Amino acid sequence: MTAPRIVVDVENGVPPWRQVRDQLIRLINGGVLPVGSRLPTIRQLAADLGLAAGTVARAYRELETSGVLTTGRRQGTVVAALPSHAPDPLSAAAAEFVAIARSLGASEGEALNAVRAHYLGE
């Protein structure tokens, strides 16, 4: 089984397990992975993405806990349901950034300037 279209950027500061989880949510919500679709095994997806198996396992576990995925011995990991109230990945990343910026003592203006500079590639 080939891996879904997932790309992990280890340099962007978002934990890889969260990137995998968020992209799976987008693929499921977008219909690319409809309910009933089988996902690659943890080992296979980890190998395809160049990640540790524990990283992919955490993403799968998070989605199992929320009822989006189910895993069975013979059926593997399957999309069980559409995410009911999936967190908006951009909003979650923004909240994480704000928390870090505040912990560093950055002002709102400094934080916004940092975002603009990176967004524009400066």
TrEMBL record:
One Pfam family recorded for the sequence:
GntR
- Superkingdom assignment: Bacteria
Where is the HTH gntR-type domain positioned along the sequence?
A: 14-82
- Record key words, sorted: DNA-binding, Transcription, Transcription regulation
Asked if the keyword Nucleotide-binding belongs to this entry, the reply reads no
Name of this chain's protein: GntR family transcriptional regulator
